[in-house]
C-alpha cells in the first residue's frame, strides 16, 4: 500500500461523502483534534513510563479513541441523518474522572501556571490545544450542523486535562506553580 495518493496535490482533501479544500472549517476542526490526539499520546506515554500514573495513562488511551471518534463525526460532507460515534455518555464519564482528579489534588485558590512534572506540563499542552479544537468546532457549527455531543465532549475534555495535570503533580509529589500575581480566585470545596 502506498501512503501517498497525489489526490491532494491541488489543495483538496476527501471527507466522508465528498471533497473540500484543505483549509475548510471541517478539516480545521478534525485536524486540530488529530493534533490534540498526538499530544495526548505523548502524555500517555510519559504518564505510563514509570508505573506511578498507570491509571491516568489508561484514561488517556481511552480519550485517544474517543478523539478519533470525534474527528470521524466531524468529517461528514453532509452530517444530516448520520449515525454518530460520540454520544452523551463519554462526557458524563469525563465528569466522573474530573471529580476524582480534583479530589486527589490539593485545594486551589490561585491561578496556576502550566508545569510541575513533565506529565502535568504535557497535560496542560493538551488542555490548550483542546481549547483551540473547541474554538474550531464552534466555528464549524456556525457553518453546518454537527454532532453537538462532540462539542460537549471537547468542552468537558479541557477541564479533564486541567484536573488531571494537577492530580498528576500531586501523585508525583510535585507542587503546582502558582501565578504569583494572582488574587485568591477559587472558592473552597464544600
UniProtKB/TrEMBL annotation:
<dbReference type="Pfam" id="PF01923">
    <property type="entry name" value="Cob_adeno_trans"/>
</dbReference>
<comment type="similarity">
    <text>Belongs to the Cob(I)alamin adenosyltransferase family.</text>
</comment>
<dbReference type="InterPro" id="IPR029499">
    <property type="entry name" value="PduO-typ"/>
</dbReference>
<keyword id="KW-0547">Nucleotide-binding</keyword>
<feature type="domain" description="Cobalamin adenosyltransferase-like">
    <location>
        <begin position="3"/>
        <end position="167"/>
    </location>
</feature>
<comment type="pathway">
    <text>Cofactor biosynthesis; adenosylcobalamin biosynthesis; adenosylcobalamin from cob(II)yrinate a,c-diamide: step 2/7.</text>
</comment>
<keyword id="KW-0067">ATP-binding</keyword>
<dbReference type="InterPro" id="IPR016030">
    <property type="entry name" value="CblAdoTrfase-like"/>
</dbReference>
<dbReference type="InterPro" id="IPR036451">
    <property type="entry name" value="CblAdoTrfase-like_sf"/>
</dbReference>
<keyword id="KW-0808">Transferase</keyword>
<dbReference type="GO" id="GO:0008817">
    <property type="term" value="F:corrinoid adenosyltransferase activity"/>
</dbReference>
<protein>
    <recommendedName>
        <fullName>Corrinoid adenosyltransferase</fullName>
        <ecNumber>2.5.1.17</ecNumber>
    </recommendedName>
</protein>
<keyword id="KW-0169">Cobalamin biosynthesis</keyword>
Amino acid at each position: 500500500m502506498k501512503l501517498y495518493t497525489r489526490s491532494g496535490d491541488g489543495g483538496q482533501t476527501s471527507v466522508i461523502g465528498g471533497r473540500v479544500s484543505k483549509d475548510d472549517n471541517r478539516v480545521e476542526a478534525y485536524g486540530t483534534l488529530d493534533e490534540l490526539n498526538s499530544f495526548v499520546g505523548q502524555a500517555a506515554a510519559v504518564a505510563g513510563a514509570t508505573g506511578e500514573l498507570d491509571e491516568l495513562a489508561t484514561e488517556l488511551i481511552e480519550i485517544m479513541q474517543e478523539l478519533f471518534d470525534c474527528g470521524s463525526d466531524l468529517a461528514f460532507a453532509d452530517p444530516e441523518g448520520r449515525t454518530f460515534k460520540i454520544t452523551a455518555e463519554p462526557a458524563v464519564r469525563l465528569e466522573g474522572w474530573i471529580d476524582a482528579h480534583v479530589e486527589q489534588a490539593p485545594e486551589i485558590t490561585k491561578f496556576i501556571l502550566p508545569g510541575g512534572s513533565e506529565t502535568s506540563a504535557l497535560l496542560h499542552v493538551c488542555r490548550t490545544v483542546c481549547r483551540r479544537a473547541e474554538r474550531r468546532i464552534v466555528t464549524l457549527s456556525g457553518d453546518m450542523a454537527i454532532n453537538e455531543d462532540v462539542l460537549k465532549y471537547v468542552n468537558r475534555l479541557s477541564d479533564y486535562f486541567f484536573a488531571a495535570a494537577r492530580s498528576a503533580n500531586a501523585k508525583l509529589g510535585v507542587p503546582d506553580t502558582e501565578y504569583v500575581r494572582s488574587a485568591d480566585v477559587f472558592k473552597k470545596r464544600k
